[in-house]
Amino acid sequence: MASIDTSIYPHATGNALKTVQEHSAGDVDKAELVFYSGWFCPFVQRAWIALEEKGIPYLYQEENPYKKDVKFLEKFPKGLVPGVLYKGNPIAESLVILEFLEDAYPQVPLLPTDPYSRAQVRYTVDSVTKSVLPPFYRLLQAQEEDKRDEARQDLYKGLQKFTEGITGPFWAGEQFTHADIALLPFIVRLPILEAHRSFKRTEVGHGFEAYAERVVNIPSVQRTLSDAERYEEVYDRYLRNETQSEVAKSTRAGRILP
């Protein structure tokens, strides 16, 4: 019998499947940039949004991190997605990949040109990592009501901190940046918390509802979205606190997310 994680749906669906099909023709050994992905992963979606927003040519490779391919592990020993192979050189970690893409492909910039504004965007990305993601996963996995209540309130606070800094249609004003991309995949997955964990985005306030609706409908984001029911299937194992993903194990242990 397949384990709860290895039985994951094998490929993207919906809009994301169309995008995958557009980027699947090619030779891994000849492509300038190979994108190793797991369609279901929010950290993958960060890098994927940036690739699409910038219009970077890439070869898509689906990897199930629960059934790790030997050749993939040779390039990425941790076995985690996303991964980028650039001219044969491996680059891992979603936020590192965002910075790399900005340096290697400066067209359609996703960071402000002003040094101070760039620093503020990076500070906000760090804040998402520290103030939003941990309570997001704690709320997702918590089985006791008191722990859910605590995580829910902490998530509201983290999202409020983010939203208070928004200065226009996007976090940095008129420009779509890494600050938006860092949070976006988790906005996409909020309906799961709304359906199963009594999360209410109205509780965030500060225009969060309008912001969330706006950024989710950006074309580059839409092109990375699979069907909602497939996300539900993946996160059902988180809701039961049974998944063995590295993020889930870190959340259970109270450790920093990998």
TrEMBL record:
SUPFAM superfamilies, sorted: GST C-terminal domain-like (SSF47616), Thioredoxin-like (SSF52833)
Record-annotated GST N-terminal domain positions: 31-109
Entry keyword set: Oxidoreductase, Transferase
InterPro entries: Glutathione-S-Trfase_C-like, Glutathione-S-Trfase_C_sf, Glutathione_S-Trfase, Glutathione_S-Trfase_N, GST_omega, GST_Omega/HSP26, Thioredoxin-like_sf
GO cellular component: cytoplasm
Domain of life from the UniProt record: Eukaryota
Annotated ranges, domain GST C-terminal: 114-245
PROSITE patterns, sorted: GST_CTER (PS50405), GST_NTER (PS50404)
Example of a GO MF term: glutathione transferase activity
Protein name as annotated: Glutathione S-transferase, N-terminal domain
Source organism of the structure: Rhizoctonia solani
Lineage of the organism: Eukaryota, Fungi, Dikarya, Basidiomycota, Agaricomycotina
